């Protein structure tokens, strides 16, 4: 009889922990909110938030105009076809360096592990921006938020 009460206590405790975990999961804040667009850091953060929210039209609006800028369809398809897949990456936007109409923003990308037996890894990289018509626009960002052939001349066979 004593063992039945002990087992019942353990099961009730496990059920309580599961309920608390579910409540905490569903009431947690999302944390993905757009910020200001007047600084290079704000533009990079908003670009990343738009990508995570799958608002590719808004993300595309942060790209700089350039000779080999991708079309909006090519940009969106790179994410939809998983050529670029930022779903398993966390980002911390750090500081920026501004020199005239050019800026670089330091970004720390945390890549989650692809299997349960290895740990994730963190890499530091830079996003490059330029001021166009008074607004900061991105002309290069680190993977997994950027496709390698954007702003690159396409190869043409001779």
Could you characterize the architecture of this molecule?
By secondary structure, this protein is α+β, with helices and mostly antiparallel strands. It has a domain at 31-140: Nuclear Transport Factor 2, Chain: A, CATH 3.10.450. Helix content is 34%, strand content 25%. It contains four helices and four strands. The protein has helices spanning 2-27, 40-52, 56-61, 72-80; strands at residues 89-99, 102-111, 121-132, 135-140. Strands 1-2-3-4 form a four-stranded antiparallel β-sheet, with helices on one face. Strand 3 (121-132) and strand 4 form a beta hairpin.
Which percent range describes the beta-strand content? 15-25%
Per CATH, what is the topology of one domain? Nuclear Transport Factor 2, Chain: A
Distance between the termini: 87 Å
Specify Rg, calculated over alpha carbons: 22 Å
Mean pLDDT: 86
Spans of at least 5 consecutive residues with low confidence: none
* CATH architectural label of one domain: Roll
The strand line-up of the biggest sheet is 1-2-3-4
| Range of helix content | 25-40%
Order of helices and strands: HHHHEEEE
Overall geometry comes to elongated
**Would you state the CATH class of one domain?**
Alpha Beta
List keywords for this structure.
single chain; 158 residues; alpha+beta; Nuclear Transport Factor 2, Chain: A
């Amino acid at each position: 009889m004593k063992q039945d009460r002990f087992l019942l206590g353990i099961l009730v405790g496990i059920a309580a922990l599961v309920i608390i975990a579910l409540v905490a999961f569903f009431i947690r804040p999302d944390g993905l909110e757009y910020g200001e667009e007047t600084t290079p850091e704000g533009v990079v953060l908003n670009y990343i938030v738009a990508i995570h929210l799958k608002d590719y039209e808004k993300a595309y609006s942060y790209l700089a105009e350039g000779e080999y800028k991708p079309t909006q369809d090519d940009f969106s398809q790179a994410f939809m076809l998983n050529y670029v897949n930022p779903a398993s990456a966390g980002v911390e936007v750090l500081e920026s360096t501004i020199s005239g109409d050019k800026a670089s923003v330091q970004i720390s990308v945390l890549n989650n592990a692809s299997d349960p037996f290895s740990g994730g890894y963190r890499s530091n990289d830079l996003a490059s921006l330029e001021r166009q018509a008074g607004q900061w626009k991105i002309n290069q960002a680190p993977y997994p938020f950027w496709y390698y052939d954007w702003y690159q001349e396409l190869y043409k066979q001779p």
